[in-house]
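Q: What does the assembled structure look like for these inputs?
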Amino acid sequence: TIGMIAINSDGDMAVGTSTNGAAHKIAGRVGDSPLIGSGAYVDNEVGAACGTGDGDVLMKFLPSYQTVESMRGGKSPSEASEDALRRIVNKYPKFMGAIVAVSKNGDYGAACHGLDEFKFSYGSRKTNGINVESVKCI
Amino acid sequence: QSNYPLVINTWPFVKATEKAWQVLEKTDDPLTSVEQGCSVCEELRCDGTVGWGGSPDENGETTLDAMIMDGPSHDAGAVAGLKRIKSAISVARAVMEHTKHTFLVGDAATQFAVEMGFKEQSLSHIDSVDRYLKWLNNSCQPNFRLWVSPDPSLNCGPYQPVQPATNSDKTNANINQQSHD
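A:
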């Protein structure tokens, strides 16, 4: 699955997701990726987030919406992503997934659970090409 | 203080990020940047978890889910269970731009895509066929069925429902870096 966020020179944002879902799923099963607020979400006045992982769990928590709302409340992208994941892990301790978030001013962060680390890639004028970063999972 | 423009995506899908960044630098259009970036992953079949030829279902078929959302207008479009169309996120954008709806699914989403000019074609690849055959030859493991007979942890279907005997741990141990949303 890919979840992506773009923010332009005016601070306008967009998000997108694309996936072929879980292998060997029951025919007709849909994960969280196409669900607005779960797979991804953007509020142009606040920021944007997108997630990846176990869509059968993720869709119950609208974690991308939650992350954006936490940024509205003053959390950084990393703090907001971690907060959204902790709400999931409290109910599903074996959950595997990650969230990437960008605030309105272009700050970004990520959080993950169920992996050793989570890698994501980004590009900006400050980077010389595309960079890959990783975060240690909670 | 602003740190934009910027593109960022889950997983180290560098080619997709590169494309999104190129489009953003050229057009300053975040919606097209996201669409084109994710489209690269659909074409490259990133990790086998994006695009055609990956994650076959119980019938061996690959179906696609995608969504796109525009910040300034708060408009969005999505498709799920999309069959026989490779460009899932572009179909999602078509839902956003050419309908008053938000979310289309299944064969009807395919019909819409064809009407919008997208080419209908098989989403099978030798990788997805091979993965499906290995799954069949491994007694259909891993398996997402629960409380059915025959025992889905040992057998393929067809299945019949049985009375749940205990609370179930529905955690998907089958979800990992090669199989996820």
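Chain B touches chain A through 88 residues (CB under 8 Å).
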